[in-house]
# Entry
Amino acid sequence: MTTPAITPYVKDGIELDQIIVQGIRVTGFHGVYAPEKESGQLFLADVVAHVSTRTAADKDELARTVNYSDIADRTAEVLGGDPSDLLETVAEHIARAILEMEGVQAVDVVVHKPQAPLHVEFRDVMVKIRRDLRSGTLWAGKRIGSSAGGAGDPYSSGPREAEPADAEPIQPVTGYLGLGGNIGDVDATFREALWELHRIPGIEVRRVSSLFRTRPIGGPEQPDFLNAVIEVQTSLAPRALLAACQGIEVVHGRERHEPNGPRTLDLDLLAYGDVSLDEPDLVVPHPRAAERAFVLQPWATLAPDHVLPGGERIGDLAAEVGTDGVELVAARWPASPEPASPEPAAPQG
# Structure
């Protein structure tokens, strides 16, 4: 018995890791013919969950990854559960069960039926499918920034007029992204995020602000944050840029358990050229950027003359909000980023 090769799953330009459980063996009662449903036969399944394992590996904590025992149990429940006529249906039910697990972005499922009632000698019968959160019909509840349901969504039904948030610019535009985090080695996480952004087609990291330490605002008791602002040039649509940012958050183990809680990485879309958007999943410029010292102070070291659509100049806004709770850590950051390329230019100011 052989299993087809596993192709990588790429989410927003980032290739995810794989947790693989092969050869799950259960007696099931699936089949078109009555004897199959009466006496049962052997079914096997191979399951590949596409996830980010980085945070779990760094912390060596099972709770931060997808438990392969749970993958096996959920798969076995479907194989030995309510009968279905088709292998395709069994595979679909397994895929949906695995996609419901926290942290799983996509899943490959192969269902084997080695005792299928054929009239010739054969080695195996199998059905292989791949499903992600959109094709698994769970996207609306678990989506992490995307064009789901919009003109850019490959799973939307029928042609649709492009929404402004999904419109790619005629020429690349300048965008600004906010970096934040207070769990783990945040400096190293920021450097990795810069490199990962730069690798995504349609995004070029141009410059990086000074690095600041800031006191948490609201939420539970937690460590101070590090904050910075990135200038990018992008040919992506605003929503696609947001999706890329949030895909990188996933790679670094970002979890959203409570508002204003601690986090490994925040990548916020602060501004996108001179575009103004007010959509349920995307507001540009960021609706609270003009009020937050931890955004404005680093932004002012990078682009003090940038003007928001309302006419406010970043340098002036930074002077108004002041520096309460915000402390400069490094005026030139990163001085020697790892990996060494791309190397953002020194901030202005």
The first strand starts at residue 10 and ends at 11. The chain has nine helices and 14 strands.
